[in-house]
């Protein structure tokens, strides 16, 4: 089948959906998230009102399934540990237990972030006009800022690493107010900002442009729940600022409850993500 026309959709420089008019009169539709997460491409024959999904090769599908399972489990466990850390901070004895729980949860977030990036790096790509997805050689890294899926997952992964700085610093004892704000609060704010940017890019990807509501799309629910978690993390981070004049936190309760609620959102998103697989 030869290609006779191609239509691109997306936002700004990013393409999130491509539609080919095939030589036999049918169409093939590639969607960034659907190809990356499920390894599927939609094909409709000429004169056929229905459509069918064409799957990538067996190796690509197995690869996507494994990476999706790793990311889903990592975010589910990481979110659960963050929620536990916030609960200990709110109701516990006030020792370093909560900080260590946060730190271990952060390692799971690192794992989930990198697995998500690997899924974007190794996603099967569309081929020009033949209604199929092409396999790719396995890679541990790539640099493709022109792809919205790569950029979203890369920003997410960097955000988890910045959170690691925050969590590691929180284990230190005897810090001054200025050191707490510089080593703990500032990385927390940067990490939350990166999470929000990543979530916005993911919404643009799943909505093929301006973010909106796609209630029938599992991918949209995963992104929306995670973005809500990012907003709650940001609220908690703002409330966790230590005033230099009084050495007191702006609002401990908001910081703890915001972290707990945001962590539960990421945990729920991880559970949902497990079902968004080939």
In terms of topology, how is this protein built?
Elements: E1 3-11, E2 14-22, E3 27-31, H1 32-38, E4 40-44, E5 52-55, H2 58-91, H3 97-121, E6 125-126, E7 133-134, H4 148-169, H5 177-207, H6 218-239, H7 252-274
Antiparallel strand pairs: 1-2, 2-3, 3-4, 4-5, 6-7
What does this structure look like?
This protein is an alpha+beta fold. It folds into two domains: 3-55, no CATH class; 58-125 and 135-274. The protein has helices at residues 32-38, 58-91, 97-121, 148-169, 177-207, 218-239, 252-274, and strands at 3-11, 14-22, 27-31, 40-44, 52-55, 125-126, 133-134. Strand 6 (125-126) and strand 7 form a beta hairpin. Helix 2 (58-91) runs antiparallel to helix 3 (97-121), helix 4 packs antiparallel against helix 5 (177-207) and helix 5 (177-207) packs antiparallel against helix 6 (218-239).
Short recap of the structure:
The chain is an alpha+beta fold. It contains seven helices and seven strands, in the order E-E-E-H-E-E-H-H-E-E-H-H-H-H.
Main attributes of the structure:
278 residues; alpha+beta; 2 domains; 5-stranded antiparallel beta sheet; two-stranded antiparallel ribbon
H/E order of the elements?
A: EEEHEEHHEEHHHH
Q: What radius of gyration results from the CA coordinates? A: 21 Å
Count of separate DSSP helical elements: 7
How many beta-strand elements? 7
């Amino acid at each position: 089948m030869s290609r006779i026309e191609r239509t691109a959709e997306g936002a700004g420089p990013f393409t999130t959906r491509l539609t080919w008019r095939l030589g036999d009169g049918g169409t093939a539709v590639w969607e960034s998230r659907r190809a990356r997460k499920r390894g599927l491409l939609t094909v409709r024959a000429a004169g056929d009102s229905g459509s069918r999904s064409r799957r990538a090769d067996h190796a690509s599908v197995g690869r996507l399934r494994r990476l999706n399972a790793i990311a889903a489990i990592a975010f589910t466990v990481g979110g659960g540990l963050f929620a536990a850390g916030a609960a200990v901070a709110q109701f516990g004895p006030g020792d370093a237990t909560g900080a260590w729980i946060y730190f271990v949860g952060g390692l799971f977030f690192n794992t989930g972030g990198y697995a998500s990036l690997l899924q974007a790096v190794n996603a099967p790509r569309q081929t020009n006009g033949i209604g199929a997805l092409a396999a790719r050689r396995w890679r541990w890294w790539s640099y493709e800022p022109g792809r919205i899926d790569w950029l979203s997952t890369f920003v997410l992964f960097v955000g988890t690493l910045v959170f690691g700085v925050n969590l590691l610093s929180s284990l230190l004892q005897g810090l001054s107010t200025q050191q707490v704000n510089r080593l703990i609060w500032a990385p927390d704010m940067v990490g939350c900002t990166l999470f929000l940017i990543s979530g916005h890019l993911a919404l643009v990807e799943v909505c093929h442009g301006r973010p909106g509501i796609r209630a029938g799309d599992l991918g949209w629910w995963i992104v929306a729940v995670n973005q809500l978690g990012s907003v709650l993390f940001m609220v908690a981070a703002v409330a966790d600022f230590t005033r230099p004049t009084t050495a007191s936190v702006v609002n401990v309760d908001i910081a703890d409850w915001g972290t707990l609620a945001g962590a539960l959102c990421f945990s729920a998103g991880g559970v949902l993500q497990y079902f968004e697989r080939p």
